[in-house]
Design brief:
Layout lengths: L2 H25 L3 E6 L4 H9 L5 E8 L6 H8 L6 E6 L6 H13 L1 H7 L1 E2 L6 H18 L5
Parallel strand pairs: 1-2, 1-4, 2-3
């Protein structure tokens, strides 16, 4: 992932995380985001939530070449007390192995609700809409106009 692509993903994810943090603050609540990644979402989620007061983030990624060295550095070099990045050994099927674990955790309603479990990923309408606007603005800025 290039730094420009990280910025686009971070912009969209950042907007959602800032909005979520604001709403959690107003409600007096806290969330623990669980993110399984093999690419762009992990670094974006880690950086977007770094330093937020009402969100703790756990980013899981499969070790063994399933993420690029650059993506791994983008996640593991971040120093934020509310962000934990965990490389998981033994994922023969890469992200699919982690997705199964995450799905089981979310399926356990007592656990999910008890710890305030949430997630962030690149497949939701808020992320899609902000990403579209980011790419649109980038495209027009290269042509010297922004409409």
């Amino acid at each position: 992932m290039t730094w420009r692509a990280l910025f686009a993903c971070l912009y969209a994810t950042g907007f959602l995380c800032l909005l979520t943090d604001y709403l959690l603050e107003r409600r007096g609540e806290r969330r623990h985001l669980l993110v399984a990644t093999t690419g762009d979402t992990g670094p974006a989620a880690a950086h977007a939530t770094a330093g937020l007061k009402n969100i703790d983030t756990w980013v899981l990624y499969p070790k063994g070449g399933f993420v690029s060295e650059e993506q791994e550095r983008q996640m593991t070099s971040l120093e934020a007390p509310n962000v934990q990045v965990v490389g998981v050994d033994g994922c023969r099927d890469g992200g699919d192995d982690l997705d199964e674990v995450v799905a089981r955790l979310f399926a356990d309603a007592a656990f999910r609700d008890g710890v305030g479990l949430g997630s962030v990923n690149s497949i939701n309408w808020g992320h899609v809409l902000t990403t579209i606007n980011t790419h649109r603005a980038s495209r027009h800025s290269h042509h010297g106009e922004l409409t």
